[in-house]
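User: Quick sanity check before I run a bigger batch. Here is a single chain. Can you write out its predicted 3D structure?
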Amino acid sequence: MTSTNEQVLREPPLAGDETATLLGSLERQRATLGWKCGGLDAAGMRVTVGASSITLGGLLKHLAAVEAITFSWKLLGADPGAPWNTVDWDNDPNWPWHSAAEDSPEQLFALWRDAVTRARAMVRQALADGGLDHPGTITTPDGESPSLRRLLIDMIEEYARHVGHADLIRESVDGLTGEDPPA
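Assistant: Done. Predicted structure follows.
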């Protein structure tokens, strides 16, 4: 998931500072999602459970979109890049979920990994330019902007919710269970 020269925490430190704890928690969620979605063919990436239409492929593509939009646009005010800037979100807000069925597992992982790699770089940039208090560029109707701290918490919550979905789907595919990816 990372380049050989990029150190990524696989879980929060037991007694770290706020930044290390937030980043460690996010990395743990990313690693768990990657593990739950890994090693499957296209059919495995399209499995659903019960009445839900959520798939592992859809989760990867959705979370790639959330990474790109949160840290590019919401945090730094930058264009999130393709394919996110080409989607007609008003007419198709669920595009990542259903379009994932057209993508191979390799394409989905590449899209997600690229979004995560770029998000890490943007977070490092914001940390160097204001730390966790670095303001995002979006504003509420009341004129408030979220801090990097808040955006990291939102991303951790987004992943944690969807990792729970991935747990159920993956177990239904091949019985894989567990809380943390193997070291």
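Confidence is low (pLDDT under 50) at residues 1-7.

User: Great, the batch can go ahead then.
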